[in-house]
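Handoff note, outgoing to incoming analyst
You'll be picking up this chain. Sequence as last confirmed:
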Amino acid sequence: MLSLHRPDERFQDAFLSGARDYVRAKETKSIARYQPGLDNFSAYLRSLRDMAAGVGLQPGWVAMSYFWLIENDVRLIGVSRLRPRLTPALEIQGGHIGYNVPPSVRRKGYGTQLLRLTLPKARAAGLSRVLLTVDSSNVASIRIIERNGGRVESEGYVGPLGRTVRRYTIAVEP
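Most recent structure output, in case you need it:
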């Protein structure tokens, strides 16, 4: 049974296991994102709650809520991040929703389910349409977005990133 939750102490073991999966796979970007939780889980949870409330944000950052896709209340299957408001930079790269699935559980449809379950959270946050961005070479993520009704808005080379990015929109149903 899969369910989407806000980060919570009761999922500490599930989170730690999922975060260690990125470490084993040497996925630098994900390691940097989740290492604070491995170092001090309680402080990490506080920082996520503050971020969701818009408290103590770094300059140029916006409030962002994390959601954990948990299987049978014990296994972290994925993480999504929802930003109800975008900066001009996030409109180019980042969008309203970001997500990732630990390496050991990829290619099993969990990313599609994770995004599908995050869309109602976007609607609850007052959004009727969400923007998602993806590197044009990320075929797996493109499939996830398209399976959830994503429509290509644009595609282009983003000089500061040094790569081509697709921008998708998804209408969020009431």
